[in-house]
Model the fold of this input.
Amino acid sequence: MKNILRMILVTLFIVPFFPLFLYRTYGNKRYRLTGNTIIVCNHYSNFDPLFIQMKFYTKKIRFIALKGTKRRVHLRFITWLFDCIYVDQDKIDVNFFKTSIQSLSSGEVICIFPEGVVNPRKFGLFDFKQSYLRLAKKTGAKILPLYLYPELKWFKRSKLFIGDELVFDYHNSDLDIINTQVMSILLDYEASL
Done:
């Protein structure tokens, strides 16, 4: 039932507004998304999840959403429809980690925006939270870095840079160093566009 509702909602939204959601792919254009993967992406607009889902339309992606989105009825419906995982930024959210670990262990894909908020500057990155690294360390998940620059103007193409999957030796490396490496990879993608 959710799948049918999801298809109807996306179709009703995309068809009249398709000129806003045109994009050009850079980098690893032929990448095929597989299970047990964490997509790590910058966050410049509230439409970022839609662009990512459109690119990987054949695979179900569970997006991480702030717990505060439950307060608005329409956002609660959308996050329910797309099976989002809620996270509470104000404290260590055990339920978030438990649900994410179960999803990744069962071969699902999750997408996290580690900046934690929409970056209104539309350039650069805010500091990344390390929860995605803790999840990858616990589950052995691959990390797929994406850089998205949404134009959101009629017939102007947004830019989506798909990187190569990253696998780190988490047991012999410091998470701060790995986090800095992932951030610098995304900044390199930004500079290449």
